[in-house]
Amino acid sequence: MRKNYSIAYILLIPTFIIIISFIYYPAFYTFKLSFHRMAPFGNRVIYVGLKNYIRLFQDPEYILSIKITFWFLLFTVSLGMLLSFLFALLLNEKVPGTRFYRTLIFAPYAISPAIAGTLWAFLLNPVVGHLNYILLKLFGFQVEWLTTRPYAFFSVAFATVWKNLAFGIIFYLAGLQSVPDDLIEAAMIDGANTFRRIVSIILPYLSPITFYLIIMNIISSMFASFGTIDVMTAGGPAGSTSILMYKLFLDAFTYSRTGAAAAQTVILFVFMVIVTIVYFTYGQRSVHYQ
Length: 290
Prior knowledge:
By secondary structure, this protein is mostly helical.
C-alpha cells in the first residue's frame, strides 16, 4: 500500500509543479505586489501598505467602473438567462428542422469573444454597418452605436449576451428533456395553460440548472467579455464600457500602474468570492433537487 501511495504521489508531481507555478505563485505574488508601488523607472519596488487600495476607492474612474460593472452584470445575466430559457423552450418543440435551428443557435458559442466583438463592431459600424443601413433606409437616421453613450454600453452588453446565449440554451434544453411528460400531460388535463405549466412544473425542475447558470454567467460576463469590449469600444466612450476587468487591464498594461492593478485583482477576487458565497447561501434555498 505504501509503495502504491508513493507511485501515486510521484505521478502527481508534474501536476503540482504546474499548479504551483501558474496558479498559486502568481496569486501570492499578485497579493504581495498589491502592497507595493513600482518606481518610475521600474528599477525598484516600494512598499506602500494599503495606499493602493485607499487610492482606488478615492479614484472616480474606479468608482464609475464599479457602477458600470454592476449594471453590466445585471443586464447581461438577467437578459441572457431569460433568452436562453425561451429559446430552449422553442427548440424543445418537435417541429421540422429543429436540429438545423439548434446548430445555428449554438454556433456563436464556438467563436472567441474577440471574434464576436469584431462581428458586432462591423454590424454596428456607422459607415458600412448593416443596422445603420436599415435604420437609414426605413427611418432616415443613423446611430453612433460604439462612440456615444449609452448606446456603446448596450451594444457591448447585447454582444456579450449573444456570445454567451448558447451556453445557457444547451443546459436548459438538456433539462427540459428530463421533465416527465406525464406531469405535463396531467397539468394539461387539469386545464393548466402554458404559463402555469412553465411556472409550476418546468421552472422548479430546472432550478438546479438555473442556479448553476447564474454563477457561470456572472463569471463569463465579468471575465470573458474582456475581448468583446476591447475590440468594440476599448472601454470608451469616456469609460462608459470599462468594467472592472477592463479597468484592471488598462492600469496594468497601458498606464503601467502595477501596484494598483494588483490591488484591483485582489478586490475582484474578493468580490467574486463574496458573490458566490452569498448566492450559494441564499440562492440555494429556492433550488429543488428532484
